[in-house]
Amino acid sequence: MQLGRVVGTLVASRKEPRMEGMKFLVVRVIDTDDTETGGYVIAVDVVGAGVGEVILYASGSSARQTEMTRDRPCDAVIMAIVDTWEVDGEEQFRK
């Protein structure tokens, strides 16, 4: 699992039929200091995340283990919206 910030949406009018009805979001990867690492991921949203929110996403085979993505050609899935996190007892982020 990795942290990311939703920075946009992606619309694909033609796609694999098993991906119909799924919402795709553009995610900028961040670290635990809330610093952007430079990478982007396109992820299926299964929790109703929106632009600007910090999220937790899974990639690879783990992305196909949610109810919505099971047995679908998905490589990244947003599976949580982050409320807060701490590192070494110090709060790093609060929604």
Describe this protein's structure.
With 95 residues, the protein is an all-beta fold. The chain has a single domain, classed as EutN/Ccml (OB fold (Dihydrolipoamide Acetyltransferase, E2P), Beta Barrel), CATH 2.40.50.220. 0% of the residues lie in helices and 51% in strands. The protein has no helices and 7 strands. The protein has a 5-stranded mixed barrel. Strands 6-7 form a two-stranded antiparallel sheet. A hairpin with a 5-residue loop joins strand 2 and strand 3. It is elongated. The mean pLDDT is 92.
Summarize the helices and strands and which ones pair or pack.
Elements: E1 2-10, E2 23-30, E3 36-45, E4 54-59, E5 76-81, E6 84-87, E7 90-94
Parallel strand pairs: 3-5
Antiparallel strand pairs: 1-2, 1-4, 2-3, 4-5, 6-7
Describe what is shown at a glance.
By secondary structure, the chain is mainly β. It has one domain: OB fold (Dihydrolipoamide Acetyltransferase, E2P) (Beta Barrel), CATH 2.40.50.
- The CATH architecture comes to Beta Barrel
Termini Cα gap: 19 Å
The biggest beta sheet reads:
5 strands, mixed, barrel
Report the CATH superfamily: EutN/Ccml
Sheet-strand content, in percent, reads over 45%
Question: What are the key terms here?
Answer:
95 residues, mainly beta, OB fold (Dihydrolipoamide Acetyltransferase, E2P), two-stranded antiparallel sheet, 0% helix, elongated
